[in-house]
Predict the 3D structure of the following.
Amino acid sequence: MAERSVYKLKIDEDFKRLIPPLSLDELQQLEENIIRDGCREPLSVWYTTILDGHNRYEICTRLQIPFAIQRVFLRNREEAIAWICANQLGRRNITAETRKYLIGKRYEMEKILGAHNAVGTNQHSEKEVRAKILPEPLYEDTAIRTRERLGEEYKISHATVFYYGKYSRALDELTKIVPDLVPKILSGEFKISRANVVELAQLPGQTIKRLCQQLADDEAEFVGSLREFIPGKHRLSGRQPIGSVKEMPAYDPDAEISALALTVPSWVSSIKRAH
């Protein structure tokens, strides 16, 4: 049951990042609707933290318009994140990349929750539970069941759920290093394959930053440079066909050194196989 809010709510940036941002036109339309009709939909709140309704909260507090809240009872942060993901996945206006990310993020949280339940969260701290369950077969058992359940819910294979989990972890890593890149990937503004997102996230932080600076200047140059760091043919998406002269990156001695360092292990491996 909704209730009137009488205190200031909290905004968790990690929670907010899971919700696709509205365009300027959509924000303007939302504000006009709230001014005309009031805030008709309650904000979903976990204790005092907003789970859904960040834009409505900003508009209502700025314009001093009353709003209601709907309390959501959850046990921990993982449940809160899983709830947000499931809630957003129920909406039609999300991009394909956002859908992959949210399914993967929900999987990552719910497999942890399943393991918590298996060992008894109430008997251990969260840190102890994570340390205890991660190396054990019990954790993989709960992960398999989670993949099966989410695969059936979203009409995708269990393996796809697993790979979406890797994708979400990679995007979270990239957010720590180049936070401006991830919204462009999720919105579809910049197109890069799921596999290459995973491999990009494994590169050194300075390399990622340098590549993303090139992205700000020219997407084709970024794609060409990224190919130097990630081995494999025909894996990168871009505006020009692979091998196109237009995609060749500008000469960068630092990039050559970094690329050489990354290819040495593969050379060693090839030599060993040859012998």
User: Anything to note?
Assistant: Residues 1-73 form a domain with the Conserved hypothetical protein from pyrococcus furiosus pfu- 392566-001, ParB domain fold (CATH 3.90.1530.10). Strands lie at 3-4, 43-46, 49-52, 68-71. The chain has 13 helices and four strands.
